[in-house]
Amino acid sequence: MVSFHPDSKFLTDFAAGNLPLSEAVCVAAHLEFCSKCRSHVQQLSDVAAQMMARLEPVVADEDGFDTLMQRIEAGESTPQPARSAAQRASAASGATTMPLVVQKLAKGGLQNMSWVQLGRSLRIAPVNVGCKDRQTAIYDIKAGGRMPEHEHRGEEITVLLKGSFSDAEGKYVRGDFVVRHAGERHQPTATLDTDCICLVSLAEPVKPTSFWYRLLEPFVQYRLSGFSN
Amino acid sequence: MEKDEEMDSAAPQFSRSAVPDPWAENVRLVAQTRDRAAFQLLYKHFTPLIRAFLLKSMGSGANRAEAEEITQEVLIKVWNKAASFNPGKASVNTWIFTIARNTRIDFIRRNDRNNREIDIEDIWHEPDSPEPLVDLQQRRAEQVIKQAMATLPDEQVQVLYKAFMEGKSHNEVAEELGLPLGTVKSRIRLALSKMQILIDR
Ligand SMILES: [Zn+2]
Prior knowledge:
Chain A is α+β, with helices and mostly antiparallel strands. Chain A has helices at 8-15, 21-33, 35-53, 65-73, 85-88, 100-105, 211-216; strands at residues 116-118, 122-127, 134-141, 150-151, 156-162, 165-167, 170-172, 177-180, 185-186, 189-190, 196-203.
């Protein structure tokens, strides 16, 4: 049961189309698990649509309809069929399926991604969503694995895709959207029985000075002590 | 017992027709018979609104010619995607807004398309998922939103307008109005709650 959701700021900025891509990918992944937030986004789109309906119309000098029809008939693009039922099935329907947005990022499968092993129980596959201010990545934490304790220098969003993890604040399951703010410290631990896979968006940290930190860039900003395994 | 069930199953039909959408028929005709006249009516009504939205939301980076090109792109998508419009899920109004929104995001992001591993439409879907019960509440909610919007105080309308029509994030709205982020957030939340959009903290 999903119990951690994006707040009104994330959902509003998402529905209005103003959320940077790295964060938007996280919200989109959560939406595939959460009908409540899907319905909120839909309502927020209704708000936007109502506002658009109330704008002062801007009429062009020329009608342009015939030109448009010529473009359409010239076959600039072909009609698109409705999405298939399979495409529309939400990720929540299967315990192992990844959200569509993650499948896209993973180019079909997690095994196709470029993984970087960090310590014994953590590997990270960075993805490029065309977002300069944030790092986006898939994290894979071995069952029972413990992440190094780390402090966030920028906001971190985690969406749980598989398995579960816990930290001092609570336990998180599939679909949960967890936000950690700059300055917060935590040490997540994956549950014992299964690997934990997450989608993570990390705000660009203040550039670290230590050589070791720089070595780990651009993936994580963990304290060095965390890697003493 | 049987009677109750009967009433439940009859309810959707009744409620749906109680929320009429004057444009749904036009989209259906475009989808099924490629009806040009029906499309022209949609074009006449929505083009000036889409254009107005794009001129406001595309920011200073876009000139009038670009806004016009994106407007035309939106209309081409309306024609091409008509078959995927789901009248139970959203009004034509909302459906067209989402197409305009996505086309705008795509325009803004066009420059970095080459090094991006994902399409805009993989993130921002159009409303098309079949969830009958949710759909119903959705269309009712739309009526509530419409009515409540007219009663909002100016300072709430202002922040909603900047977010939804001018394409500004919470942070940008806060900066522009010289308000703390928390104030912008709570004004938007207040406005949303008046429209019965109750997002938990
Ligand atoms: Zn949710």
